[in-house]
Amino acid sequence: MNDMVASAGAVTFAEGYKAAGINVGIKSSGKLDLAAVVSDTPASAAALFTSNRVVAAPVIVSRERLAVSGSCQAIVINSGNANACTGRAGLKDAALMADRLANCLGVEPSLCLVASTGIIGERLPLPIILDGISVVAEAAHRLGGHSAAQAILTTDAFTKEAVAQIEIAGSVVRIGGMAKGAGMIAPRLVPHATMIAVITTDAAASPDFLRKSLEQAVAVSFNACSVDGDTSTNDTVFLLANGASGIPELGSGEGDDMELFTSSLTQVCTELAKMMVKDGEGGTKVITYKVVGAANDQEAGQAAAAMAKSLLVKTAFHGEDPNWGRLLAAAGYSGAQLDQRKIQLQIGGVKLLNDGEPQSANLPAAAKAMRADEIEVVLELGLGNGSGIFYGCDLSLEYVRINSEYHT
Amino acid sequence: MNDMVASAGAVTFAEGYKAAGINVGIKSSGKLDLAAVVSDTPASAAALFTSNRVVAAPVIVSRERLAVSGSCQAIVINSGNANACTGRAGLKDAALMADRLANCLGVEPSLCLVASTGIIGERLPLPIILDGISVVAEAAHRLGGHSAAQAILTTDAFTKEAVAQIEIAGSVVRIGGMAKGAGMIAPRLVPHATMIAVITTDAAASPDFLRKSLEQAVAVSFNACSVDGDTSTNDTVFLLANGASGIPELGSGEGDDMELFTSSLTQVCTELAKMMVKDGEGGTKVITYKVVGAANDQEAGQAAAAMAKSLLVKTAFHGEDPNWGRLLAAAGYSGAQLDQRKIQLQIGGVKLLNDGEPQSANLPAAAKAMRADEIEVVLELGLGNGSGIFYGCDLSLEYVRINSEYHT
Q1: Mean pLDDT of all residues in chain A?
Q2: What average pLDDT score do residues B308-337 get?
Q3: A363 touching B (Cβ < 8 Å)
Q4: What does pTM read for this prediction?
Q5: Minimal CA–CA distance to B334: which of A328, A89, A186, A24?
Q6: Catalytic choice (A50, A155, A159, A194)
Q7: Does B406 lie at the interface with A, CB-CB under 8 angstroms?
Q8: What number is the ipTM of this complex?
Q9: Which residues of B touch A323 (CB under 8 A)?
Q10: In chain A, what residues touch B299 (CB-CB under 8 Å)?
Q11: Which of A197, A260, A381, B101 has fewest C-beta within 10 Å?
């Protein structure tokens, strides 16, 4: 029931959405830097925002508007400037962006949200952005999802788009999302991302339903990935449901549909999160860290996250060196309970630790397994039933180049 | 009253201590790899060990022995192999090292401790180490401190040695310490360090007194520094007090002497910690992060630590780029309370944020200040009286080279 289809243009895959991306000159490179996503009708909406206590102006504005309305019809997103740490003037700029979009579309300002990503601490070039909003609102069309996905990128090497399609009550329901993010990536959206994602669906659902479903999906996707361990001031995930599929409202009838929807939403979020990690600045490998047998799920997640974020682990993967002691050390300081005599560890299916005893004969096989682009680490703690997963990348020379040469 | 003197040979600066460092072949390079520090008489002792739940064999052995005796007469330390994650065999090896030292010196085994640093997960080359212990115990002499400091190094570029001298009750009291550590450095010794430090003093003090004094000193030195955010399985700080100065036992009379001693011990630990950060793998700068005006000291420490450990902050310092938004983002996700409208931020004495408003005109001056080898960041939160400090280094291409090419 869950067919994957081609994902380019994902944010306009669901019925009743239009989008576009244009260049207005925020990025001097001439690359696309302003996107709009527009629903034909007001959509039920939920959003999760960064847990960083330094919060960018667009996050403040979008959070306030959504809290009031629970609905959203359109979102404007600029890249190249985060409008963060820009004081009172920045707050006005963010509100003016959303208001201009509302004005162009002829909808209530409360139905228009805003997001920004890029350099922190600089004022937006507001005149060109406001003029651009008129253009991008006009340009939004059914096949515009891919250009929108391009326009939200910063240091990203590629667009992140994913879709899922399910059948509910005899009708086809579509979910599609786009995301950006390659650096300052260690999302802890509230209730736990500089990632920005917009997910649209033609399902019908209440804002409450959407929020619960989004929290579940984000917990095991965006909130379980890290490029550099830095949680941004701008992380935002929007979920819009405009009901264009014609299905009855989710959550009002049998419970199974909710599970099916959430499972598909999770799949879309997980695909987007893994793409973010794959595009992690300078990264060359995606590593999935699975922890099982922990005292509980929370501790399993902590241990998986600590391994994924460790600089020594990340450089070992970059060097394709099965220096598994670094994995153990990271799990050991994660806060998770462990008994080193009970630990099993595998890298790429090769066992390196058995009941806490090193399996040194397997090191060459592990080194070979580490040459892959995608590698799985499995740590079994042998203590309980807790399990957790986290996605990370390696740390390359290129990462340091990108981030020490990305000047203000 | 607190005169700094030349620090080479610091661990034998206090009266009544001998030391030596030799090469036994653990390091194929031929560099020194086995050290012994010996007190003429049994010394009152305290130690703090890693809070990592994966604990190296020598940590387990030393912790147990010290808990029983509260005393120590000699310590053997090898570099090149951490004897961590080596199972039951590794535990025996660590005990045999300490026992051999006791046998050579003709003292009780409970008075001999052991520490190891280097690669995780490989068995020690025990025969050459046991033979070497006989040699190094014999070689220990009053001027051997510097060779011992060399023999505990791993990826370090230089030895870390520091001394202090004070007068208590009309007598000269000396404190001297050596440390190693350039990678896997984010000590959280219990009650909060792959650093290893041995500090010796000829003061007289109970193990209890020493422990309290050491905890205070470590909290603002070793536990307030990070190279890579990775807390090791082997971190250990030993403090020995043999009473050879002839002063009455500290803590038994007036309280001022305790403060004076702890303040000097803190000075020695802070110097050693800053040397560790300066020698941080691939690092080219030492950055001191001061946070003031926090809600409380703990939150100030959290904010300072988050800035020091952020990869984006570390690469910005490497690039000498006043990308202060990265500092704010790190403080924002640290867990410390903050109100971005009240924040003042300085880099190298140049104000970049005033009541939350960017001071963009000062960016060129800040960029110039960042060219220094030692830079101070001051973040004022304007909320309360909490203050904290943390020491960090930059993140260079060399760091990635060292750690992706350091093969098992």
Answers
A1: 89
A2: 90
A3: yes
A4: 0.79
A5: A186
A6: A194
A7: yes
A8: 0.74
A9: 119-120, 406-408
A10: none
A11: A260
**Which DSSP letter does residue B348 get?**
T
The answer to whether A73 contacts chain B (CB < 8 Å) is no
Alpha-carbon distance of B178 to B197, in angstroms, equals: 6
Residue A318 exposed, middle or buried by CB count within 10 Å (0-12, 13-18, 19+): buried
Question: Which residues face B358 on adjacent strands?
Answer: B353
| Backbone phi, psi, residue B34, to 5° | -140, 125
Look at A54 and B332 and tell me if their CB atoms are within 8 Å: yes
Averaged pLDDT for residues B4-19: 83
Any B CB within 8 A of A389 CB? no
Question: Is B356 in the A-facing interface, judged by CB distances under 8 Å?
Answer: yes
Helix, strand, coil: what percent of chain B each, to 5? 35, 30, 35
B230/A326 touch (CB, cutoff 8 Å), yes or no: yes
User: Which amino acid is present at B367?
Assistant: A
Residue B408 has its nearest CB partner, among A120, A321, A333, at: A321
Peptide bond preceding B358: is omega within 30 degrees of 0, i.e. cis? no
Question: Could you give all domains of chain B from N- to C-terminal order, each with its CATH number?
Answer: 10-278 (3.60.70.12), 286-405 (3.10.20.340)
**Enzyme catalytic residues of B:** 194
Could you tell me the sign of the dihedral formed by the alpha carbons of B204, B209, B211, B215, in that order? negative
Give A357's contacts in chain B (Cβ within 8 Å): 87
Whether A341 contacts A374, CB under 8 Å: no
CA–CA gap between residue A358 and residue A356 (Å, rounded): 7
Contact flag B357-A55 (C-beta cutoff 8 Å): no
Question: Does A49 reach chain B within 8 Å, measured CB to CB?
Answer: no
Q: How far apart are the first and last CA of chain A?
A: 48
Which pLDDT tens digit goes with each residue over A325-374? 889 989 988 889 999 889 999 999 999 999 988 898 999 999 999 999 99
Give the number of other CB atoms < 10 A from CB of residue A72: 28
Mean pLDDT over the full length of chain B: 89
- The CB density around residue B169, as the number of other CB atoms within 10 Å, is 13
Residue with tokens 């490179």: A29
- pLDDT attached to residue A192: 40
A186-195, A293-302, B224-233, B372-381, range with the lowest pLDDT? A186-195
Coil vs helix vs strand at B65: helix
Q: Give the Cα separation of B104 and B66 in Å (integer).
A: 19
pLDDT over threshold 50, residue B193 = no
Closest approach of B241 to chain A, Cα-based (Å)? 30
* pLDDT value at A53 more than 90: no
pLDDT tens digits along A225-260? 877 767 777 888 899 999 999 988 888 765 578 889
Closest CA in chain B for residue A123: B358
Given this model, what pLDDT does residue B8 score? 79
- Whole-number Å distance between alpha carbons of A18 and A11: 8
Instruction: Give the end-to-end CA distance of chain B in Å, rounded to a whole number.
Output: 48
pLDDT at B356: 87
